[in-house]
Amino acid sequence: MSFYPIDELEKGNYSFLYDMTIYDKKSLIKSIRSKDNKNKIISAFIKNIIEKMPYFSFDLIYDNDNFQEEIIYLINKYNLYKDIDLEKLKSFINTSFGRKYILDNLSYFIIERKEFTDFIIDYSQNDIEKNRDFIDKLYLHSNLSIRAKFMKKLIDDHIDKLELIYDDITKYFTSYTHQEYEQLTFLPELMDVTDISEIAIKLFEKNNDKKYYEKLKEIILNSYKENDLARFLIKDKKNYINSSVYSLKENKIGIKEFSNDANTLFSTSRTSKLIIMNNFSEYITKELMDEFKRYINLFTKDNKYSHILDNIYYYGLGNKLQQYVEKYLEISKSKESYFIASGSCSHCFKIGDYVIKLANGKWSYEEELCPNLYLILKNIEEEFIRNDKGVILTGFEIQKYLTKRVEDATVPSYKNFLRKLNELGYYYNDDLLNGKTGDNCMILDSYMDADHPNPEELPVEFKENPIVLVDRDLIFKKGNEYSKKILNSTFY
Questions:
Q1: Burial bucket for residue 49 (CB in 10 Å: 0-12, 13-18, 19+)
Q2: Count of domains observed in the chain
Q3: Reported pTM
Q4: Is position 454 within any domain?
Q5: What is the rounded distance in angstroms from the CA atom of residue 287 to the CA atom of residue 307?
Q6: What percent of the chain has pLDDT over 70?
Q7: Helix 193-206 crosses helix 211-223 at what angle (to 10 degrees)?
Q8: Residue 329 lies in a domain
């Protein structure tokens, strides 16, 4: 005799559900949801299984307004809002209960669940009148990153609706929103410089009279030390052949606008000075460009590793690096600058009395990249950019330039270093003190330069022979069996 699960469920027989495989349950849910009489089928058994099979129940009814009571119960008791993925959200938001639930918990769905943000913003703007309740919560959102996403989407897809939402969009790029009864602050939070720069250029391209662009440009130049206006103006445009294939073409309109104020946009550029030097230097005065080239030549003359500067500038560290170079050259007795050596993930330059290491990675990506210990040369300055997993993408370190070399890492000195490191609660995960990729150990000019609050308390043998590790990488805490380190070189 044949067995038909849906027929049995409609009769109120459900015990067989407990013995079904996950695959069969998913197939059954799909079949029930496709039926015209699904509400009748579900009503026959849902109250009987909701406690023992909450996930099955939720997957069956999450977007069905006829079972609001059950949906609320499941969400509240089992926190099943966390079980909503993007595909479920697209259906959930189109039910009266789901729409209200998302609106009431909007911060969770757009901040904690970042994978939903773009969809919810797109949903709100697709029918501005119908979704005014969503619009009102998004267009001046206190999270300026969310607000920026909302603005970009609006300008890209609904520029004709811009003034229906913002009376003057240029007023809303800080945490102060000009609303009635809002408390004024003298130091409002500013929108991220990349976001406001990109929005300004979108308005330049989309808003015919350029009034918003000109006002935003003035705000950016007055409120931010550096910006990304040049980056977006000179960036090649995508010429789409179809939805997924495109070619790049020169941004002639953007380049013309850049040329109108090139010196200012170059001087304040956060990421694009190298690109401008290499491709658009004819728009910059000779004096300004020559000054920049003198600095760049410190890192590009007589060596092949100038490409690392591309990363430094791409990730927005170029101006800070230049400031440090100028600072430490000025306080140095020596004014010499030259390339020293390269390791597996950094390139070292003598800049006056200091060493600047340009990093295009680190083997370690622990939260604490390297401990501050007397056995390790301290960084006077350091800046690193990580990806979302914590891996170092680029950065630089500044250390004192040491002249006393450890010609040979003898077995006793190596063992002594490891012993002292072990006593301090750490271990070294590189191969050699004087490694194949450069001199990893040097001798301090004086033990008084050691990274320690009171160097006089240091061991006698260290005072007599203050050998320090200069490569601040691959030092891990003891007991850390699963240290975060890159297993294969990805730096080239």
A1: middle
A2: 1
A3: 0.87
A4: yes
A5: 24
A6: 92
A7: 160
A8: yes
